[in-house]
Design brief:
Layout (H helix, E strand, L loop, with lengths): L1 H19 L1 H15 L3 E8 L8 H13 L6 E6 L3 H7 L8 E5 L3 H9 E6 L14 E4 L21 H9 L2 E4 L2 H10 L5 E8 L3 H7 L3 H10 L9 E6 L7 H22 L3 E5 L3 H8 L15 H5 L4 E4 L4 H5 L6 E4 L3 H4 L16 E2 L2 H9 L1 H7 L1 H11 L7 H11 L9 E6 L3 E6 L7 H12 L5 E7 L5 H8 L6 E4 L8 H13 L9 H12 L4 E6 L5 H9 L2 E8 L3 H5 L10 H8 L7 E4 L2 H10 L9 E3 L6 H4 L15 E9 L7 E4 L10 E4 L5 E10 L2 E8 L2 E7 L3 E3 L4 E13 L6 E3 L10 E4 L7 E10 L3 E7 L2 E7 L3 E3 L13 H17 L1 H9 L3 E11 L6 E2 L10 E2 L5 E10 L2 E9 L2 E6 L5 E3 L5 E13 L3 E4 L3 H6 L3 E4 L3 E10 L4 E7 L2 E6 L3 E3 L4 E3 L5 E3 ...
Parallel strand pairs: 1-2, 1-4, 2-3, 4-5, 5-6, 6-7, 8-9, 8-10, 10-11, 11-12, 14-15, 14-17, 15-16, 17-18, 18-19, 19-20, 51-52, 51-54, 52-53, 54-55, 55-56
Antiparallel strand pairs: 7-13, 21-24, 21-27, 22-23, 24-25, 25-26, 28-31, 28-34, 29-30, 31-32, 32-33, 35-38, 35-41, 36-37, 38-39, 39-40, 42-45, 42-48, 43-44, 45-46, 46-47, 49-50
Length: 1194
């Protein structure tokens, strides 16, 4: 039934998307225009800040072109998002017949994107935009960066995906200075791979500052009813907004207003005190009536405005770099830097900036009062910054850019630097797989780390990296690697969607026309107009990615084959051939690749024989995988990132608790920052706003403000933090999709309220359509109820909803009849598309009461539980339990359910009527289990308990600690304390676990935190490593070891790894009564440290491509046994480096184990570094496009 539903979904979605999905309609329309329209000569499309304004460098270029286009040969198209304010600016151009304004995302906009000869943007075009070969895309960006950019920002590298995509699509990147050039090339990793040109010649927008028409600008400001006294100077404050919600915006605006009011009170006789807020904040600012008389309209060009500004006050905005050309004073007010600096670094320290830095409003006002003195002290910095950041800007920058780009006229020396981002190296495009923790990912990382970057330039083509596992692996790639991510929907029309569906489902058929065009277009969308020498599908298991690799603009295309691919296609896991559809389709495309690259010669021959009908014999080649010997041998020094204690954003109300007669001492900035200074904080009452929290050593500090003015940091003990509360409830009629992530939780109320509890993970609900009847604001954030159909399931942050523009309410809150019908249609399709999710929703708790404690159960009956709260789920008996740990009581569609602990850390669901709970009157022992590991004692003296009774009565003796002790039992009490029984000289005693830490002296902990003792050197220790899956055949290894142990009565077998065969293997261990002799190690972050302590490595695979674990064991110098299969015979060089079994069955493996354990063989030492050099050179033979063809087949 599930398969039928999936097939229906696949069949109907391509047809329905353009009808019911706004983004689907846009893509469909855009793609048709892309295919059908031709480029119109002398046409320019301008977009500034996603169409929100007509400003910045696009405006400067437009005005220059308009002024010099005396014959009106050009057509100018502006992308706009209409607003009353923008209309005031646009009206001066409305009468011009060669100036066209198109609403962003309208049909006209989509058409002009496809037919304009020049596209000019200061940010990014959306994910569906593709630049045609005949188009010129000029990206001006929007400022010299002070804060870190691109991949310099900590976190998920995929966050930069659309910026990087736009940069690679561009023909020219305009740069005002070398610092911004390096941002493009290094922070976004364009260096060596970018095929356009970085033009470093100043900023077109700065020309506007030189030629500002004061009268026109002031006239426009008066037209907007701004309060300006022409007899006074102009002071402009330009704060950057870092907020994450509308509520945060309101708090920011109140503070901006109060602080400017304080400045205006002292300096209002001399200055007009004006503010220009960040565009993200402007809509809220324009509705904040108190600030409007002093608020610069968002549609006013900032650089024109700078031409009339006498004093600039800013924080991290790039605007100050532009202002340097005026030689007028700059003051920095960075009151909130310590709220954000730990999340995102900056390129310059405060003592380098071209003006004094203030951290409180009082410090800022003092700098204004002493302006001449404080700016004189910063003059050398000012001059240095001018030379570094505005060396080209003389008012003629736009002219130079236009003449170079349009007419090829090179400016005089020193007026422009042209940087060709292309290195001239051999360019490789590599899809490394999904970057999960597996053998293919390790091999891909090893290969890329080994590639000689002096000769080769590497681009990694990646999928979205939503997990920390993927992000960590991407972080292991060399910094010179370009990163390009797949995201967004492909630009397929409905017909093309069905063509792709056919290929995906059936593969390439000789009687079908392969749609090269649609995949080539998709590559242009994702990769830009990049050209590669070699494109490599390193994964070799994905039809989707192979189609893209084949469609890339590459001279050569290679697909890796990591195994016996036919066997892998037919491999069954949990009753399913998991690779069948993908590999069947991929096989049908093999003939389109230049090489099919196996990872050993033996595997090459196997694949060539099995898959001969899909490709010519000469296409089947091989190259060995590379390894990382230093990592295997433990020679790599661990990288320790500098630990920075982050400031926790904590918007709360608080009350100062010390007597008002006692001076309140604090700091102007976070006390651990080098520039922090102690200060006395003046209050006008005990009530304050808390902004952030920070821990330093044993002390906690809070950042506070009062009446909208920031005051400083104070200690925790002088303030009482009040609970969060609801500040506003807005009734709405919104409709949209859930945009939950792996970490998203569903709550029973607004998340930040004290009484709110989580109801479960909301990841599975992603992409469900929901209605939103209200937005609830607290001091912390904005939240919405999750309503699917007519049922409320809980609450999520407003940011977890992607609102539908097409089916949402109008400005007056009205939802039309047509939109209501559309909503019902989408909701109905949701049920079709997400049937399994809707089944899961029935199990979803909608109410929860937390218990989180130990209780007595007075019912003396077997407790039947299940893994999900569903009466039809499989039941598990846990027997009679007098004591139970109850996490919570939950209500769902099926009734009320307790969530209880079956064993430590393992929770199950029990129907409410199965338990009769009562409170415990005294502390009791909840669990007392055998265990085994070692601990170090943290204190020189430690409390020792002689018995369990002493633990319950808190009767202990303080004794001198031993350096290391062995733990034999763990005991948990009902007041949630854990005690460990340890061997203490000649007796057993109990310690509180909190007084100890785990020791690695005699064992290691796996990824599940289970302790694994090191192997016993007195006996022979066998080990294997790999995924516990059928093709690895570890069941045979257990059988062989059972026979070995029966004969020898000694030895241990360690299985490192996890996988679907674990239960079957555990059953085999039970069958042969080897529970104390076969140890399931699980996954380990550093398995090589454990492997090297064992004696013999054993591999019993049925088939392999190139067994990397053998190479790793050889690198460790271990004795090795392997089944005699082609790939293993090849790696071990017919027994040179290890023993090959005489027969590939349990008897053969057992006999080999005896022979190697008895040292009947001598093996040669393996040179991992020499192997690696040969492996990478072998790889180069195929990717060096200048090599002679016969060299590749030697």
């Amino acid at each position: 039934m599930l398969g039928i539903n999936k097939n229906i979904k696949r069949l109907v979605l391509p047809a329905l998307k353009p009808i019911v999905s706004p983004s689907g309609k846009i893509i469909d329309t855009y793609t048709k225009y892309f295919k059908e329209t031709e480029i119109q000569p002398n046409t320019f499309l301008f977009e500034s800040r996603d169409g929100q304004s007509m400003t910045d460098s696009p405006l400067a270029i437009f005005e220059y072109l308009l002024a010099t286009d005396t014959e009106r040969k050009n057509t100018y198209v502006w992308s706009i998002v209409s607003s009353p304010e923008l209309d005031i600016v646009l009206k001066k151009y409305r009468s011009e017949t060669n100036i066209i304004f198109v609403e962003r995302e309208s049909d006209d906009y989509l058409k002009w994107l496809c037919q304009a000869q020049y596209l000019i943007n200061n940010a990014t075009f959306q994910q569906y935009v593709i630049i045609k070969e005949e188009q010129t895309y000029i990206n001006t960006w929007h400022g010299t960066p002070l804060k870190t950019m691109g991949y310099d920002i900590p976190g998920n590298p995929a966050d930069a995906k659309n910026v990087v995509r736009n940069f690679f699509m561009s023909t020219f990147l305009l740069s005002p200075n070398a610092h911004t050039t390096n941002m493009y090339l290094d922070s976004y990793r364009l260096r060596g791979g970018y095929e356009g040109h970085v033009l470093e010649a100043g900023y077109p927008r700065i020309d506007q500052t030189f030629r500002t028409n004061h009268d026109d600008l002031l006239k426009t400001l008066f037209e907007f009813k701004r309060d300006i006294d022409l007899s006074k100077k102009i002071m402009l404050y330009t704060p950057t907004w870092k907020g994450a919600s509308v509520n945060s915006a309101r708090n920011d605006l109140e503070q901006i207003y109060q602080e400017l009011a304080s400045i205006r009170q002292e300096f209002g006789d001399t200055y007009n005190v004006l503010v220009k807020v960040h565009p993200f904040l402007y809509e809220q600012a324009a509705a904040f009536k108190k600030i409007v008389p002093y608020l610069i309209p968002d549609c006013i060009d900032t650089n024109k405005l700078l031409g009339i500004v006498d004093l600039l006050i800013t924080d991290y905005s790039s605007i100050f770099f532009d202002f340097l050309v005026t030689d007028r004073p700059i003051l920095f007010y960075c009151w909130d830097d310590d709220l954000y600096t730990s999340d995102r670094g900056k390129y310059f320290e405060y003592d380098e900036l071209p003006g004094p830095v203030a951290f409180t409003i009082d410090e800022l006002k003092k700098n204004i009062a002493d302006l001449d003195e404080v700016t004189a002290a910063s003059r050398s910095n000012y001059e240095r910054f001018k030379k570094m950041f505005v060396p080209y800007d003389d008012g003629q920058t736009t002219k130079r850019y236009v003449e170079y780009i349009l007419y090829g006229k090179m400016p005089e020396a020193q007026q422009m630097t042209v940087i060709n981002g292309h290195s001239g190296k051999i360019k490789l495009l590599i899809y490394p797989g999904g970057m999960r923790n597996n053998g293919i990912t390790s091999s891909a990382i090893n290969l890329i780390q080994n590639i000689d970057t002096r000769k080769y330039d590497v681009t990694c083509f990646l999928d979205q990296s939503g997990t920390m596992e993927q992000q960590t692996n991407i972080g292991l790639l060399p910094k010179s690697t370009h990163l390009i991510f797949r995201f967004g929907n492909p630009n397929f029309t409905t017909k093309e969607g069905y063509q792709d569906l056919r290929i995906q489902a059936r593969g390439y058929k000789n009687d079908a026309s392969y749609p090269d065009e649609i995949y080539e277009r998709e590559c242009l969308r994702l990769l830009g107009n990049q050209h590669f020498d070699v494109a490599i599908d390193f994964s070799g298991y994905s039809l989707y990615w192979s189609k893209l690799i084949l469609a890339s603009q590459s001279k050569m295309r290679i697909c890796y084959m990591h195994s016996d691919m036919l066997s892998d296609m037919n491999r069954v896991v949990n009753g399913r051939k998991i690779h069948k559809v993908n590999l069947r389709g991929l096989f049908s495309l093999y003939h389109r690749f230049d090489y099919l690259m196996s990872v050993s010669d033996i595997t090459r021959q196997t694949n060539a024989d099995n898959l001969a009908k899909y490709a010519a014999a000469e296409k089947f080649v091989y190259t060995p995988n590379t390894i990382n010997p230093d990592r295997i041998l433990g020679k790599l020094k661990p990288t320790t990132d500098k630990v920075i204690n982050k400031t926790v954003l904590l918007p709360r109300e608080g009350i100062i608790t010390i007597d008002s007669s006692v001076p309140l001492r604090g700091y102007n900035a976070r006390p651990d920052f080098y520039y922090a200074k102690k200060r006395t904080i003046d209050l006008i009452g005990p009530n304050v706003a808390v902004l952030g929290e920070f821990e330093m050593g044993e002390q906690t500090y809070y950042k506070i403000s009062q009446n909208g003015c920031y005051l400083g940091w104070v200690r925790q003990d002088v303030i009482n933090i009040l609970p969060d509360h609801i500040t506003d409830t807005e009734k709405v009629a919104y409709f949209g999709k859930l945009a939950t992530t792996n970490r998203s939780q569903l709550f029973d109320g607004p998340i930040s309220l004290d009484e709110t509890v989580p109801l479960g993970n909301a990841r599975y609900m992603r992409n469900l359509y929901v209605t939103v009847p209200e937005i609830i604001s607290t001091q912390t954030n904005c939240y919405v109820p999750v309503i699917v159909g007519r049922k409320k399931y809980g609450y999520v942050p407003l940011s977890s909803i992607r609102l539908s523009y097409r089916f949402n309410q109008t400005a007056d809150g009205h939802v039309s009849f047509g939109k209501k019908i559309g909503r019902k249609l989408l909701t109905g399709l949701d049920h079709l598309q997400h049937r399994e999710i809707f089944k899961q929703l029935k199990e979803q708790p909608t109410k929860r009461i937390d218990f989180k404690g130990y209780y007595q159960n007075t019912l003396a009956t077997d407790i039947l539980c299940s893994k999900v709260p569903n009466p039809t789920a499989e039941k598990i008996s846990i027997g009679v339990r007098e004591l139970v740990y109850v996490h919570s009581l939950n209500t769902n569609s099926f009734g009320n359910w307790y969530l209880i602990e079956m064993e430590v850390g393992n929770f199950v669901w029990v129907e409410q009527e199965q338990l009769m709970l009562s409170n415990l009157e005294e502390t009791r022992i909840y669990s007392n289990e055998k265990t085994f590991y070692y601990v170090d004692i943290l204190l020189p003296e430690v409390n020792v308990y002689a018995s369990e009774k002493d633990i319950l009565t808190n009767n202990y003796q303080l004794v001198k600690a031993l350096p290391l002790v062995k733990v034999v039992r763990e005991l948990v009490t009902t007041d949630d304390q854990t005690f460990i029984q340890v061997e203490w000289q000649d007796k057993l005693v109990w310690l509180n676990q909190e007084d100890t830490e785990n020791s690695l002296a005699y064992g290691m902990f796996n990824n599940n935190k289970d302790y694994i003792p090191y192997p016993n050197n007195a006996e022979t220790n066998f080990v294997t490593m790999g995924r516990l899956s059928p093709e690895k055949n570890q069941v045979q290894l257990v059988e062989a070891f059972a026979a070995y142990y029966q004969e020898k009565q000694s030895g241990y077998l360690y299985l490192i790894g996890s996988g679907p065969e674990q239960e079957k293997l555990e059953a085999a261990v039970d069958k042969y009564q080897l529970n104390n002799r076969v140890i399931f190690v699980g996954q380990m972050s550093n398995p090589f440290e454990f492997m090297r302590r064992c004696d013999i490595f054993v591999l019993t695979s049925l088939y392999e491509g190139q067994p990397m674990v053998l190479l790793e064991a050889m690198t460790l110098g271990m004795s090795i046994i392997s089944t005699d299969i082609p790939a293993c015979r090849h790696v071990l060089e017919d027994g040179r480096y290890g023993c090959l079994t005489k027969t590939n069955d349990a008897i053969g493996v057992k006999e080999a184990m005896i022979a190697v354990a008895d040292k009947q063989y001598e093996f040669e030492a393996f040179d991992p570094y020499g192997y690696n050099q040969k492996a990478i050179e072998h790889f180069y033979r195929y990717i060096d496009t200048d090599s002679e063809e016969e060299d590749k087949h030697e």
